[in-house]
């Protein structure tokens, strides 16, 4: 019997852990192939590939991000290969199972919940006497004459994780490890009861054997994996277990990056201290679900959260300069209206995470919130992803407004393209970060920019358009020349090579530029010892440097947050030199500066070949040169 396990991943770089778990458990008795596609692949290409494999059984792993695309493939496959057995599994079809079997007549059966034993038992029955009623955890259709009956067998008891073989040892995966994301689990289950999350349905947490876990991780690292994402719902729920894995990865990482979902308000101080002292910068990423800081909201969704403790943890991690943090918010939870969500956003943005993901509530099948949707007046999409369209305190009009915030937040803050500029605007100009992103998002949509693409120059020029043409949206506190100077600084540091064009008019005359380049070559120590040590000639500066005169002391601003106009700045940015240098000629990535900049984000310079230097000049000198 030829078995194909298939799924449509969200992106090519993703891999399916579920398919590998199923294959690892059943390959000793059955011939099983894995076929991975993406939701962007044409259905005809997917079906053609599956058809060429000549399967007797095809199993599809189904999630909210791929179910509708998978259904198209299933319907086509049934028409061209009527005899094939089509089996579904995964969280999207493990709830409302009867609905799925009635909606999808092309599907023969559904594996509900954990699939390793159930799928193996199903294959055994399909190859034998087909006593499907004996397969716990299976739902299937049965014909009685002209009538069809949906049979849902009793659930299968929880698996003993020690009996499961490793899903990470397939030789065919090794070549792709450096270029794809590896998903890894050390446990199953979640101790919490958040009513919007499927993980709350399973009570208790089960762990895989530590020895096996370490062996698999070491195998993946030695085989070339570059990014391993742990799918444990709360990785740090068991302190000793988490700390042991952290220590193991620190000792064996070889440059691989590891991402974890953690609950920040239960992170123990000794774990934080250990990571701050021993973790190499950049190998760990933490994803922290805050969701809401509104107490009535958290109570309604049965979410226990101490935001004060969470804030201390996030702050300690950020100040260590070792670990990037990705914080999540959910708009549309019960009792969270536009104003309280604004507060939630500002509360979390104040923690300055490297990434702040603003998502919208999805009424997942099987969750408590979906069962109680009427209680809160929810309306939502009938089909996946079941995103809300409104509730009793958040109408659709407010959801649309918040989506504009999400759009510019993703393009600007999360992309790290102009950190210094954004921090100036949200801290010094607008009433709050949310108000800035809302006003800019509204302007963005009014201009129709959501309908067209953009390049780096567009992002800068559109922000400048907003600041100069936004009218009453722009607070009086804005100093346009300061904003423009910071935007120039950020723009230059976004390039690996000397930019061929800029998005603002370059007003410095050639003779003035020539004067400053000659001055830099003749008196480099006026800039810094690091600049002088490079011993650049005027010709080399012409080739490798860009310069701009800024109307305030940028060095003082970066150092202590003061906008001082008693001195101006000649900004000098070198390209083609050693990477990762700050404006003072020191190595970047050694903590935040007084303006609130993020670790390794010297206006976006970390990891790029741009090196900024600052020459403090007297305004009268600059004016004399200009004259």
How much strand? 15-25%
Largest sheet: 7 strands, mixed
Radius of gyration, in angstroms, nearest whole number: 28 Å
First-to-last CA distance: 86 Å
Helix proportion of residues, in percent? 25-40%
Mean pLDDT: 93
**What oligomeric state do the depicted chains represent?**
single chain
Low-confidence segments, given as residue ranges, are: 579-592, 598-607
Shape type? elongated
Supply the helix-strand structural class.
Answer: alpha/beta
- Number of H/I helices: 22
Overview of this protein structure:
It is a single chain. The protein has 627 residues and is an alpha/beta fold. Helix content is 38%, strand content 18%. The chain has 22 helices and 20 strands. A seven-stranded mixed β-sheet has the order 2-1-3-4-5-6-7, with helices on both faces. A six-stranded parallel β-sheet has the order 8-11-12-13-14-15. A three-stranded antiparallel β-sheet has the order 18-19-20, sandwiched between helices. Strand 4 (85-89), helix 4 (97-103) and strand 5 (109-111) form a beta-alpha-beta unit. Helix 2 (43-52) packs across helix 3 (67-80), helix 14 (419-429) runs antiparallel to helix 17 and helix 16 runs antiparallel to helix 17 (480-492). It is elongated, with a radius of gyration of 28 Å. The model is unreliable at 579-592 and 598-607 (pLDDT under 50).
């Amino acid at each position: 019997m030829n078995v194909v396990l298939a799924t449509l991943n969200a992106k090519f770089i993703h891999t399916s852990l579920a398919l590998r778990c199923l294959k690892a458990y059943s390959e000793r008795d059955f011939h099983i192939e894995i076929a991975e596609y993406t939701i962007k692949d044409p259905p005809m290409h997917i079906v053609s590939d599956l058809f060429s494999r000549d399967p007797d059984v095809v199993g599809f792993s189904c999630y909210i991000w791929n179910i509708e695309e998978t259904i198209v493939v299933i319907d086509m496959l049934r028409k061209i290969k009527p005899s094939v057995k089509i089996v579904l599994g995964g969280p999207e079809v493990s709830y409302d199972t009867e609905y799925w079997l009635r909606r999808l007549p092309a599907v023969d059966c559904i594996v509900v919940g954990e699939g390793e034993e159930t799928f193996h038992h199903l294959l055994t029955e399909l190859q034998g006497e087909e006593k499907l009623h004996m397969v716990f955890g299976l739902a299937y259709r049965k014909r009685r004459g002209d009538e069809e009956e949906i049979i849902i067998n009793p659930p299968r008891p929880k698996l003993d994780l020690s009996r499961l073989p490793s899903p990470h040892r397939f030789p065919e995966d090794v070549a792709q490890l450096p270029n794809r994301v590896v998903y890894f689990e050390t446990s199953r289950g979640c101790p919490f009861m958040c009513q919007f999350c499927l993980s709350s349905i399973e009570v208790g947490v089960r762990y895989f054997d530590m020895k096996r876990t370490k062996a698999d991780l070491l195998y993946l690292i030695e085989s070339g994996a570059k990014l391993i994402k742990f799918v444990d719902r709360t990785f740090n729920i068991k302190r000793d277990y988490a700390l042991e894995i952290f220590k193991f990865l620190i000792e064996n990482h070889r440059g691989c990056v590891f991402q974890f979902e953690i609950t920040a308000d239960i992170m123990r101080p000794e774990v934080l201290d250990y990571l701050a002292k021993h973790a190499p910068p950049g190998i760990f990423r933490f994803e922290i679900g805050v969701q809401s800081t509104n107490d009535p909201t958290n109570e309604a969704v049965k979410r226990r959260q101490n935001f004060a403790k969470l804030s201390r943890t996030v702050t300690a991690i950020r100040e260590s300069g070792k670990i990037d943090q990705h914080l999540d918010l959910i708009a549309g939870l019960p009792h969270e209206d536009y104003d309280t969500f604004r507060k939630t956003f500002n509360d979390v943005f104040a923690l300055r995470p490297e990434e702040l993901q603003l998502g919208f509530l999805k009424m997942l099948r099987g969750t408590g919130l979906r069962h109680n949707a009427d209680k809160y007046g929810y309306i939502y999409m009938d089909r996946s992803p079941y995103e809300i369209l409104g509730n009793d305190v958040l109408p659709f009009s407010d959801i649309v407004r918040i989506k504009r915030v999400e759009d510019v937040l993703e393009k600007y803050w999360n992309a790290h393209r102009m950190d210094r500029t954004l921090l100036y605007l949200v801290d010094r100009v607008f009433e709050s970060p949310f108000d800035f992103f809302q006003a800019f998002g509204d302007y963005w949509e009014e201009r129709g920019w959501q309908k067209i693409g953009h390049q780096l120059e567009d992002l800068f020029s559109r922000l400048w358009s907003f600041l100069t043409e936004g009218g009453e949206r722009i607070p009086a506190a804005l100093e346009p020349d300061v904003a423009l100077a910071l935007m120039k600084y950020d723009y230059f540091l976004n390039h690996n090579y000397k930019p061929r064009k800029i998005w603002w008019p370059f007003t410095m005359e050639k003779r003035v530029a020539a004067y400053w380049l000659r001055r830099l070559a003749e008196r480099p120590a006026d800039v810094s010892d690091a600049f002088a040590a490079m011993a650049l000639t005027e010709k080399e500066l012409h080739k490798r440097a860009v310069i701009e005169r800024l109307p305030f002391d940028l060095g003082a601003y970066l150092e202590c947050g003061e906008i001082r106009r008693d001195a101006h700045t000649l900004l000098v940015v070198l390209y083609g030199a050693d990477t990762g240098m700050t404006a003072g000629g020191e190595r970047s990535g050694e903590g935040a500066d007084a303006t609130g900049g993020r670790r390794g984000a010297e206006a976006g310079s970390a990891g790029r070949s741009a090196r900024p230097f600052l020459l403090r000049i007297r305004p009268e000198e600059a004016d004399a040169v200009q004259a």
